Amino acid sequence: MDDSPSGMQSSLSDLHGPMSGAPSTQDPVCCVGASEKTLVVGRESGKLQRYALPNVALASRYSTSTKPYKIGINSNST
Predict the structure, then answer these.
(1) SS3 29
(2) Domain annotation covers residue 46
(3) Alpha carbon distance 75, 78 (integer Å)
(4) How many domains does the chain have?
(5) For the residues of 32-50, what is the DSSP string, one character each?
(6) Which among 26, 66, 25, 71 is positioned nearest to 46, based on CA atoms?
(7) Burial of 53 (C-beta count, 10 Å sphere; 0-12/13-18/19+)
(8) Predicted model pTM
(9) How far apart are CA 69 and CA 57, in angstroms?
(10) Residue 29: which region, alpha, beta or left (left: phi > 0; alpha: psi -120 to 50)?
């Protein structure tokens, strides 16, 4: 879920075990929120990434000046 939009790589085909060969990140995930249609990932840098479900396609990116610690999504994903 780092900076590669979905469809860029066939990441499932090169996995041989849990986290096998996965690159480390300098901006770890600090919180997540999800609904039936949306997944939002918060990073320690203040960046937020919104993914469309069920295909987990990167829909948009947002940036805040503070570290998010909690994400809440209402029932209609707005």
Answers:
(1) strand
(2) yes
(3) 8
(4) 1
(5) EEE-SSEEEEEETTSEEEE
(6) 66
(7) middle
(8) 0.70
(9) 23
(10) beta
